[in-house]
Design a protein that fits this description.
The protein has 19 helices and 18 strands. The protein is an alpha/beta fold. The termini are far apart.
C-alpha cells in the first residue's frame, strides 16, 4: 500500500515536471564579501613581475599584420617576439571598458559582463559526449543542439555558450556555421562566436548582423568569443586573426592564457601567475591597439599537471589559489574576469566529479568571477560533455543562485508575528508566514533525494546518475523552441548555403 501511494505521488510530480514551463532567467549579482587571498602589495609585486616579462622577455605574435599593428603603436618587434614598455601597457589597458552588456535575441536575456554581475555558461569544446544509456561516443550536431536546448531550458545558465560540443559528423570547414545557427534557432540567450579561423569569425559576425543589425552590434556586442593564448608566451595566427575580426567589429573577446603549471609555466604559483598575467595583458593590449574601447574580458584557465603521470589535475588546491589571485589581478586592471567552471577529471558524474567540481566552483563565487565558462557538463578533463553531469551541475548552480542572495534582514523576514504565534515547544509548519513562503523560502533540488531510505528503496533505489538521466529525457521531450522571425531564419539559411558552397573542398 505504501509503495502504491508513493508511486502515485511520484507520477503526479513527474507529470508536473514534464510540463513545458520555462522559468525566466535571472542573472545574479555578487552580494557576498569578496575573498582576497593576498594583499595589495603582493598583487602589485606580481603585476610588476609580469611587466618585466613583457618588457624584457616578450611574447610571440605569429602574424605579420599583428606585428605591424604592434610596431605602429609603439611596441618593440624583434622577429616574432614583441616587447612592451610598461607605460605603453598601462596606457592601452586603460582603454578597455570595465563592464559591458552582451545582446541576446530575447532582450530579457541580455547579460551584463563585469562589475558585480555573474554569468554562467555551459561547457565548451569537448569532442565526445556521454549519457547513461549510450555511453561515451563522438559528438554530433544532434548532440550540439541538445545541449543548446538544455542550456536554454534552465534559468541557471545565463548564456548559450559556444562550442558546447564539437559536432564531428560535420565537415570542419563549415561546422562553425551550423553551430552558430543552432545557438540562434534553438535558444534566445546570448552566444559565442567561432575562433578557429579569421574567416569563421567573420562568418559569425555576419550572422550576428543578420539577427541584430550591423549598426546595433557596433554599439553593444552580440558576440563574446574565446581567445586562448598558447602558453607559454605565444599568440598564434588563428587567434590573432579572430582578435582582429572581432575587435574591428567591436565584438567582445575573452583573452585567456591556457596554462597547465609544470608544463606550460613554472611549477611555482608565483611564476605561473606572473606569466599568466603577462600573457593576458599582451592580448588585451593588442585588442585595444586594433580597436580602442573594444570590450574585453581578462581570462584565466589554470591548473597543474600531475608530475608523475603528466596528466592534467582538475580541482587541485593550487589551481584554486591561482584563481583567487587572478581575480585580484583582473580587478587591479578594472576589467571583467573569466575563470572557474565545474571541472573534473572524472569519466562519469560520480563522487570524484562532484568533489572536484565543487572544489572549483566555491572559489569561483568567493573570488567574484564575472563570466564562468564550463559551468555545466564538463567531464574527463574537458574531453567529454556529459548529459547527466550537465543537469546535475545546473542543480548546483541553482543552489549557488540562492547562496548569492545572502540573508534577507528586512522587518518582514524577521517574522516576529510568526514567532509570537508559536508557543514554546510548538512548530512553525502550519503558520500563516510558513504558508506564504513555503514554496520559495528554501532552494529545493529536483534531483537530490530528501526522503527516507525506505522511501528511496520503494521508488526504485535510483542514484543521482539515474535520476539525472530521466531528467534529461524529460527536458528534451518538453522542449519548445523560442520564436524566431521567419525572415531572419531564411536570411541565415541563405547565408549558410552560400558560404558552404564557397567553402566546399
Amino acid at each position: 500500500m505504501e509503495r502504491s501511494k508513493l508511486a502515485e505521488r511520484r507520477e503526479r510530480r513527474r507529470e508536473r515536471r514534464e510540463q513545458p514551463v520555462l522559468t525566466p532567467m535571472r542573472q545574479p549579482r555578487h552580494r557576498l564579501p569578496v575573498y582576497e587571498l593576498v594583499d595589495a602589495e603582493a598583487i602589485e609585486r606580481i603585476h610588476q613581475k609580469a611587466l618585466t616579462i613583457l618588457a624584457e622577455i616578450g611574447i610571440a605574435f605569429l602574424d605579420a599584420e599583428a606585428q605591424t599593428i604592434l610596431r605602429d603603436h609603439g611596441a618593440e618587434v624583434d622577429g616574432d617576439i614583441v616587447r612592451f614598455d610598461p607605460a605603453l601597457v598601462e596606457s592601452y589597458l586603460a582603454r578597455a571598458p570595465a563592464q559591458f552588456t552582451q545582446l541576446a535575441r530575447n532582450p530579457e536575456n541580455n547579460v551584463v559582463i563585469g562589475g558585480d554581475y555573474l554569468c554562467f555558461a555551459p561547457v565548451y569544446g569537448p569532442p565526445y559526449v556521454l549519457d547513461r544509456a549510450r555511453g561515451r561516443r563522438s559528438a554530433t550536431l544532434a548532440d550540439f543542439q541538445n545541449f543548446v536546448k538544455l542550456a536554454y531550458l534552465t534559468p541557471y545558465l545565463h548564456h548559450s555558450g559556444g562550442t558546447v560540443v564539437e559536432p564531428t559528423d560535420l565537415p570542419p570547414s563549415t561546422r562553425h556555421l551550423d553551430m552558430v545557427f543552432s545557438h540562434i534557432k534553438y535558444s534566445d540567450k546570448a552566444f559565442m562566436g567561432s575562433v578557429t579561423a579569421a574567416e569563421n569569425a567573420a562568418d559569425s559576425v555576419a550572422m550576428a548582423e543578420i539577427v541584430f543589425g550591423a549598426e546595433r552590434i557596433r554599439t553593444q556586442p552580440a558576440l563574446l568569443s574565446l581567445i586562448n593564448v598558447s602558453s607559454p608566451r605565444r599568440l598564434d595566427d588563428r587567434m590573432l586573426g579572430a582578435i582582429k575580426v572581432y575587435a574591428r567589429a567591436r565584438q567582445a573577446l575573452i583573452i585567456t592564457p591556457f596554462i597547465l603549471s609544470g608544463a606550460m609555466s613554472p611549477v611555482s604559483l608565483a611564476g605561473t601567475l606572473a606569466q599568466l598575467h603577462a600573457e593576458a595583458m599582451a592580448g588585451i593590449v593588442f585588442t585595444q591597439m586594433v580597436e580602442p574601447g573594444a570590450p574585453v574580458v581578462y581570462g584565466s584557465f589554470q591548473t597543474n599537471v600531475d608530475l608523475q603521470s603528466g596528466s592534467p589535475v582538475f580541482g587541485s588546491p593550487e589551481s584554486q589559489l591561482a584563481l583567487f589571485v587572478s581575480a585580484q589581478l583582473a580587478r587591479r586592471l578594472n576589467l571583467p574576469f573569466r575563470s572557474g567552471g565545474m571541472f573534473t577529471s572524472a569519466k562519469i558524474p560520480d563522487a570524484q566529479a562532484g568533489y572536484e567540481s565543487i572544489m572549483v566552483m566555491l572559489p569561483t563565487l568567493l573570488a567574484r568571477v564575472n563570466f564562468v565558462l564550463h559551468a555545466a557538463g564538463w567531464l574527463e578533463g574537458g574531453l567529454t560533455s556529459g548529459y547527466e553531469k550537465f543537469v546535475l551541475d545546473c542543480e548546483f548552480l541553482g543552489m549557488m543562485h540562492k547562496f548569492l542572495e545572502g540573508i534577507d534582514l528586512s522587518d518582514e523576514a524577521f517574522a516576529l508575528d510568526s514567532i509570537r504565534e508559536v508557543a514554546p515547544g510548538g512548530h512553525h509548519l502550519g503558520t500563516e508566514y510558513t504558508r506564504q513562503h513555503f514554496r520559495t523560502a528554501f532552494y529545493r533540488s529536483e534531483l537530490m533525494d530528501y526522503g527516507t531510505a525506505e522511501q528511496w528503496n520503494a521508488l526504485g533505489a535510483k542514484d543521482a546518475y539515474h535520476r539525472a538521466h530521466e531528467k534529461v529525457q524529460q527536458l528534451l521531450a518538453a522542449y519548445e523552441p523560442p520564436p524566431l522571425d521567419p525572415a531572419i531564419e531564411e536570411a541565415l539559411e541563405d547565408f549558410m548555403a552560400r558560404r558552404k558552397a564557397e567553402l566546399k573542398p
